[in-house]
């Protein structure tokens, strides 16, 4: 059942056991799992069926630190959430992403990759994916990895009819949970704002916060302030350890041997480091996206190389009559180390139309991120040279240590951390089952629970974690 207002929902006398806040990939997946288990669940979606400027305005905020996207642009506030502008890139976090890194404090999850693998078949059905293929070593340091471009599933479009026809799921649009109330052990209710006005209070036996990698922290920070610590009793880490995937053009490559590694249908290939290489260099995970340029592009690159990289130009010239394949652009997206100083705070001066403080995002890339970018490109270049597969030229701003460009991608629109998973209540917000520490009936879904960001786009792992949480709750909750 789908309702366009809270008043219409109340008139239906639906009695839920569980309230899910947010209808994006995590919220929709969890609701479907619970509904299939016969558990009545209501999904409260702050937006409507379609994008609107009025709804999007609730997402305005400010960023302090490094240049970042406008906060009302980098996510979407209507049914289906940010799946509505998802590009469709899919890969599960690597096994090593779940392990602690001795050189990067506060890394490591309380679960392992094996804990989400049982759900990957279900994830493939949800995201319309073929089977994932194993990585292919290119050298002892670099591996070819697969990123699958799914049809970019829009969750409202794919699952809307199913949700509307379900007897166990009610989706309530235009209904914003402005705050949760709690007594330090349980969430006792929620305050709602629907269709532009206060809609009173709401209660359920369980609450699952799936409002996104920024809004999850905002809602819990505000709720905790209003309830004097009654919603997140162990709040030291709340809003902290926020992460993104910095993303920039890293340079160029010229490739020698046709068929040395596989490219996809749009002439792109993806590479990442081996775990041993990361440990040896004390860097984070990274992904290099190699985009082939048609052969005529090689000529202009050679002319440029003659002035800026004569040794590389000499190798290229020697290969011109030896099946020189193409030039390529190299884009790098890499893992950001979790730092407590990268955090979501509540604005002291700005509130939205419902009176909730807007977000003030504090985000800055560290020296470890800079080193990962440079050493990662060097590692890739060394592999191509040693295997005589090609040569790499690193962009001048990277090799010289200049400031990050402000006219490039900047980041992946991947919002991770803020309510991270862990066992130490001073460094995490939820446990291994995504339950808020100290609370009996409050859970969090989505990438805000990520302990580390890896290099993979997060949606596949978000969906796997949502399947896992939905199954866990279906065993915990009695109807």
Textual characterization of the structure:
This protein is of the alpha/beta class and about 475 residues long. Helices cover about 25% and strands about 25% of the residues. Strands 6, 7, 14, 15, 16, 17, 20 and 21 form an 8-stranded antiparallel beta sheet that branches. Helix 4 packs across helix 12.
Throw out a few tags for this protein.
479 residues, alpha/beta, eight-stranded antiparallel beta sheet, 26% helix
Summarize this entry quickly.
This protein has 479 residues and is an alpha/beta fold. It has helices spanning 6-11, 25-36, 53-56, 120-127, 155-165, 215-226, 275-281, 296-308, 310-319, 367-386, 396-399, 459-476; strands at 2-3, 18-21, 41-44, 61-65, 89-90, 136-137, 142-145, 148-149, 169-172, 175-182, 187-194, 197-202, 206-209, 246-255, 268-273, 286-293, 326-334, 343-351, 357-363, 390-394, 410-411, 442-444.
**Structural class of the secondary structure composition?**
alpha/beta
- Using only C-alpha atoms, the radius of gyration works out to 23 Å
Average pLDDT, rounded to a whole number, is: 92
The fraction of residues assigned to DSSP E strands is 15-25%
Question: Counting H and I runs of at least 4 residues, what is the number of helices?
Answer: 12
Contiguous uncertain segments of 5+ residues: none
Task: Note the overall shape.
Answer: globular
Number of DSSP E strands: 22
In helices, the fraction of residues equals 25-40%
Instruction: Tell me the major beta sheet.
Output: 8 strands, antiparallel
Chain oligomer state: single chain
**Ends distance:** 19 Å
């Amino acid at each position: 059942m789908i309702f366009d207002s809270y008043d219409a929902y109340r008139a239906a006398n639906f009695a839920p056991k569980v309230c899910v806040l947010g209808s994006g990939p995590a919220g929709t997946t969890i609701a479907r799992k619970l509904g299939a288990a016969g558990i009545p669940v209501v999904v409260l979606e702050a937006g409507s069926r379609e994008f609107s400027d009025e709804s999007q305005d609730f997402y305005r905020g400010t960023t302090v630190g490094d240049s970042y996207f406008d906060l009302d642009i980098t996510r979407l506030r209507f049914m289906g959430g940010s799946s509505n502008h998802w590009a469709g890139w899919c890969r599960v976090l690597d096994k090593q992403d779940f392990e602690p890194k001795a050189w990067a404090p506060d890394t490591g999850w309380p679960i392992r990759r094996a804990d989400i693998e049982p759900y990957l078949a279900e994830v493939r059905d949800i995201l319309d994916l073929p089977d994932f293929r194993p990585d292919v070593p290119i050298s002892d340091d670099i591996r070819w990895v697969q990123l699958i471009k799914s049809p970019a599933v829009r969750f409202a479009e794919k699952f809307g009819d199913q949700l509307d026809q379900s007897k166990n799921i009610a989706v309530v649009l235009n209904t914003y949970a402005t705050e949760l109330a709690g007594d330090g052990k349980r969430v006792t209710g929620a305050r709602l704002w629907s269709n532009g006005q206060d809609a009173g209070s709401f209660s359920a036996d369980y609450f699952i916060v799936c409002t996104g990698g920024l809004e999850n922290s905002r809602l819990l920070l505000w709720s905790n302030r209003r309830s004097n610590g009654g919603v997140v009793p162990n709040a030291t880490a709340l809003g902290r350890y926020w992460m993104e995937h910095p993303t920039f053009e890293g340079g160029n490559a010229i490739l020698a041997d046709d068929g040395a590694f596989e490219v996809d249908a749009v002439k792109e290939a993806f590479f990442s480091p081996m775990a041993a290489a990361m440990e040896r260099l004390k860097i984070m995970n990274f992904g290099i996206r190699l985009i082939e340029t048609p052969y005529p592009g090689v000529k202009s690159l050679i002319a440029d190389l003659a002035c800026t990289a004569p040794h590389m130009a000499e190798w290229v010239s020697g290969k011109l009559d030896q099946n020189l394949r193409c030039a390529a652009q190299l884009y790098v997206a890499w893992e950001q180390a979790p730092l407590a100083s990268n955090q979501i705070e509540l604005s002291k001066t700005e509130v939205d139309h419902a009176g909730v403080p807007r977000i003030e995002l504090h985000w800055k890339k560290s020296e470890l991120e800079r080193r990962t970018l440079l050493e990662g490109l060097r590692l890739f270049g060394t592999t191509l040279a040693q295997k005589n597969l090609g040569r790499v030229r690193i962009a001048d701003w990277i090799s010289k240590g200049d400031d990050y460009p402000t006219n490039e991608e900047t980041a992946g629109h991947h919002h991770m951390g803020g309510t991270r998973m862990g066992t130490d209540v001073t460094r995490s917000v939820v446990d291994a089952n995504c339950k808020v520490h100290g609370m009996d009936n409050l859970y969090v879904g989505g990438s805000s629970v990520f302990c580390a960001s890896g290099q993979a786009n997060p949606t596949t792992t978000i969906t796997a974690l949502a399947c896992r949480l939905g199954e866990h709750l279906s065993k915990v909750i009695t109807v």
